[in-house]
Amino acid sequence: MPSLFESAPFALWQLLALAVVVVCASGASVYLVRKHVAAASDGLPDAVFWDVFAGLAIVAPAVILPALAAPWAGLLLGVLAVAAAAASYFWTPKVFSRSEARRISRDIAASNEAAAARHRRALARWQRYELDPAHSIDYPAMSDPRQPETAALIRAMKAAEQLRGGTDAGYAPAVDRLEQALAEAEQAAGVGQDTPARPAGLSRVDPAKG
User: What is the pTM for the complete model shown?
Assistant: First the structure.
């Protein structure tokens, strides 16, 4: 039985090599075009032209030259080129979506890590009003939930604590609100105004007795 490749001026492995080149070049060109178009804010970037040019510079010779020797080979390679381009066109949005999801996840993780450090500092800053007798005496409002600012601070602490240690994008904004609520509570309690905050363990000295 005569082989299909007996009349062709190239071997089967050569045809397979051309097929690989055509598929890869077509798919890669479409992928790069869609990537650069998606990244452009307005209009088509110059990179799109070079993506198309490079793809055609590879695919066209790989299809046309074999077609001159064996039309069926050129037809087969052309069909492969079109199929690879179409598959790449419909497949690349999923790739972009997964890449964007991974990027967002990394950004959230980095943001939450920085927020966790700020969270610890804010809690340490608040705890001195609970644990240090001197600060408790000087600023009793910081421990009084009847004060509106202190009540808001307690709510902010609970909200931040609920999101702590997770991957929720709302954790960093919750820590922002906690820091803001702490600053407002300190301002309402007069911290840094009448009596300066002192290191833990120090008590107020009466000037009349000093």
Answer: 0.59
What letter would DSSP give residue 43?
S
**105-123 pLDDT tens trace:** 999 999 999 999 999 999 9
- Three-state SS for 17? helix
Residue among 41, 22, 19, 45 nearest 32 (CA)? 45
Beta bridge partners of 195: 191
Backbone region of residue 202 per phi and psi (left: phi > 0; alpha: psi in -120 to 50; beta: other values):
beta
Would you state the structure tokens that stand for residue 167, as one six-digit string?
A: 């991957």
On the CB side of 98, CA atoms within 13 Å amount to 4
Amino acid at 150: T
Query: What are the pLDDT digits (tens) for 5-28?
Result: 444 556 788 888 999 999 999 999
Long-range contacts made by residues 146-152, C-beta under 8 angstroms, separation at least 24? Answer: 147/185, 147/188, 147/189, 148/188, 149/181, 149/184, 149/185, 149/187, 149/188, 149/189, 150/185, 150/188, 150/189, 152/181, 152/184, 152/185
| Alpha carbons 67 and 153: distance in angstroms, whole number | 76
Question: pLDDT confidence of 72, banded at 50, 70, 90?
Answer: confident
Q: What number is the average pLDDT over the span 129-135?
A: 87
Q: Looking at the chain, how many residues does it have?
A: 210
SS3 191: strand
Residue 191's φ and ψ, nearest 5 degrees, are: -65, 130
